[in-house]
Design goal:
The protein is mainly α. The protein is built from 3 helices and 2 strands; from the N terminus they run E-E-H-H-H. Strand 1 and strand 2 form a beta hairpin. Helix 2 crosses helix 3. The longest helix has 13 residues. The radius of gyration is 11 Å and the shape is globular.
């Protein structure tokens, strides 16, 4: 389990993130983050997607070679 900004990411959610990133590899990092936030219902108190937290999670997962993100600024 991984904890990111107070959220516990369980094995099933991690597998979902990996599958989504692989399936939609042509999306930008921000678009992927929006998609993951929506799928995991990961929102701020005001109801917006927790993009910063999700992007930080992406960086951690990529550093551990658990996902491969599209290049920065690709689109």
């Amino acid at each position: 389990m991984i904890v990111q900004c107070g959220r516990h990411i369980n094995k099933e959610e991690l597998e979902h993130i990996q599958e989504t990133v692989e399936t939609f590899s042509r999306l930008s990092r921000v678009e992927l983050a929006h998609t993951i936030c929506e799928h995991l219902s990961w929102y701020t108190a005001s109801g917006r997607n927790k993009l910063d937290a999700c992007l930080k999670l992406f960086s951690r997962l990529e550093a551990k070679e658990m996902i491969q993100l599209p290049e920065r600024g690709r689109y």
